[in-house]
Structure formats: structure tokens, C-alpha cells
From TrEMBL:
EC numbers, comma separated: 2.5.1.-
Similarity remark: Belongs to the UPP synthase family.
The protein's name: Isoprenyl transferase
A molecular-function term among this protein's GO annotations: transferase activity
Lineage: Bacteria, Bacteria division CSSED10-310
Protein origin, superkingdom: Bacteria
Organism name: candidate division CSSED10-310 bacterium
Note accompanying the cofactor annotation: Binds 2 magnesium ions per subunit.
Cofactors (names): Mg(2+)
Quaternary structure and interacting proteins, as annotated: Homodimer.
Record-listed Mg(2+) binding positions: D33, E220
Length: 256
């Protein structure tokens, strides 16, 4: 007789067996949404959903490293999320601090390179120093590149890039004719990283919410009704399999 756990493991294994390792996306970006609704459904405060979401974060990172994914970007806190009640914001920041402190050893052990995308200087010093420490201590790792988008807004990222490029133009370091797509990409927080091939959004919302506007130009989008705290390995594999069934055309005509 199979226990519940075994059935789950068996289902995961079946999906995993269907994944073509040659066609794995290089970069998966996830809008982790639905924590508040998850908590509400259970009659719990919203923050309980955020805490529960940490388990999904762990499982998805672990699975990404396991399957040999190159880049994973998780959207954890947008520049617009400061407009939430102060108590929720400080709880989220506390969770970030706690997560980084607790998980640093695991990240190191698993050869994961950790980075933050966003205006890190806009975060409280106690959060910032821990994030910076984790970045430094994992900077030589060569396995999964794990980005957390924190105090991130895609429009702000473009503003930062425009300012940087304009400064170099005014300094005479570059010419107007040198401003091209490559230069713009190199001035984004994701410089030197491939664009996401697959964007996953949980909780059934069909919007981008100011996430990686430039980089998602040709990403395949997968929206699942599953709320983030319920999103596990199985759902992650489903998203990858769905992606592998897509025909990516990049504006071209694919001959039959
Ligand atoms: C996602 O869950 C986490 C963050 C945006 C920080 P939400 O908190 O947005 O959950 P819902 O959308 O209200 O259910
Ligand atoms: C997007 O979720 C931001 C993160 C997941 C961190 P939101 O819940 O903030 O997005 P909207 O408000 O529904 O667009
Ligand atoms: Mg939300």
C-alpha cells in the first residue's frame, strides 16, 4: 500500500521522467503570488501566508539545483509593495532577513550563486548587510544562479539603466551610436544573465506587475491557479513540461 508521500513522490518522478533535459529553459522567473489569499482561506492573518510561502521557496530552489537549471529569479517584493500596511512590510523584511541567515549554509553547500535584483540601497541596513554578505559568500559558486527580486520595479530598473548610460554619454565614454539593445541589457540588474525563457505566475493573475519588462520580451508565460504556498515540485515540473510543448517562434515563420 502506498502512503500519501509515496504517491506524491511517484507523481513527481513520472513528470520528471517526461522532462527533456536538452530542452530545459535556461532561466525561469516566478511571480510568487497568492500568499494573502492562501492565509485568508484558512482564516489566518496574511503574514501566515508569507511564512508558509518560504517552504515553497526552499522546495523550488532545491528542485532547480537538482535538475540543473542555470538561472532562477523569484519576485519577492516589488517597489510598489511598500504601499502595503507597515506591519505586513516589516514582517516581509523580517522574513527575508531570517531566510538569508538560515539558508546561507545550504546555498553555499549546493554551489548556488545568490544575487539580489532591485534597489538594494533602499532596504534597511540590517537587511541589506545580510543580503550583501550572502552575495559575497556565494559569488564564486558555479551552480544555480539564484536571483531574488527585492525592492524591484522594472520601470525603476530602466530608469537606473538610462541614468547610467546617459552619464557615460555625457562623460564622452560612449557615443550615441553605441546605444543598442546589448548595451541596454548590460546596464540592467540582470547584466550577463540570459533572459527568462519561462515566466510562471501563481494564483491565477494574468499580469506582469512591473516585473522584468525588458527581459520578458520573448518569455513563454505559464499562469497557474495554485497559490504560492501550495506551489511545489510537482507544479514546477508541470510548468516546465508545458513550456517544452510550446513552439517558440521569435517572430519567425517555422517551416512545417
Ligand atoms: C505574494 O503574495 C507575496 C508578495 C507580493 C510579497 P500576496 O501577498 O500578493 O498575496 P495575495 O495576492 O494578496 O493573495
Ligand atoms: C507581484 O505581486 C509582486 C510580487 C510577487 C513580489 P502583487 O501581489 O504585488 O501584484 P499585484 O498587486 O496583484 O499586481
Ligand atoms: Mg498578490
Amino acid at each position: 500500500m502506498f502512503s500519501k508521500v509515496n504517491i506524491k513522490v511517484q507523481q513527481e518522478q513520472e513528470l520528471f521522467n517526461q522532462i527533456d533535459p536538452q530542452k530545459l529553459p535556461k532561466h525561469i522567473a516566478i511571480i510568487m503570488d497568492g500568499n494573502g489569499r492562501w492565509a485568508k482561506k484558512r482564516g489566518l492573518p496574511r503574514v501566515a501566508g508569507h511564512r508558509a510561502g518560504i517552504q515553497s521557496v526552499r522546495e523550488i530552489i532545491e528542485t532547480s539545483a537538482e535538475i540543473g537549471l542555470n538561472y532562477l529569479t523569484l519576485y519577492a517584493f516589488s517597489a510598489e509593495n511598500w504601499q502595503r500596511p507597515p506591519s505586513e512590510v516589516s514582517y516581509l523584511m523580517g522574513l527575508v532577513e531570517e531566510y538569508v541567515l538560515k539558508e546561507l549554509e545550504t546555498l553555499k553547500k549546493n554551489n548556488i550563486k545568490f544575487q539580489v535584483l532591485g534597489r538594494i540601497h533602499g532596504l534597511a541596513p540590517s537587511v541589506r548587510t545580510k543580503l550583501e554578505d550572502a552575495r559575497q559568500k556565494t559569488s564564486q559558486n558555479t551552480g544555480l544562479n539564484f536571483n531574488v527580486a527585492l525592492n524591484y520595479g522594472a520601470r525603476l530598473e530602466l530608469v537606473d539603466a538610462f541614468q547610467e548610460i546617459s552619464k557615460r554619454l555625457l562623460d564622452g565614454a560612449i557615443q550615441l551610436s553605441e546605444i543598442n539593445e546589448e548595451l541596454i541589457s548590460q546596464n540592467l540588474y540582470t547584466r550577463d544573465q540570459p533572459d527568462p525563457d519561462l515566466l510562471i505566475r501563481t494564483s491565477g493573475e494574468f499580469r506582469i506587475s512591473n516585473f522584468l519588462l525588458w527581459q520578458l520580451a520573448y518569455a513563454e508565460i505559464f499562469v497557474t491557479p495554485v497559490l504560492w504556498p501550495d506551489f511545489k515540485k510537482l507544479h514546477f515540473f508541470q510548468a516546465i513540461l508545458d513550456y517544452q510543448g510550446r513552439e517558440r517562434r521569435f517572430g519567425k515563420v517555422i517551416s512545417p
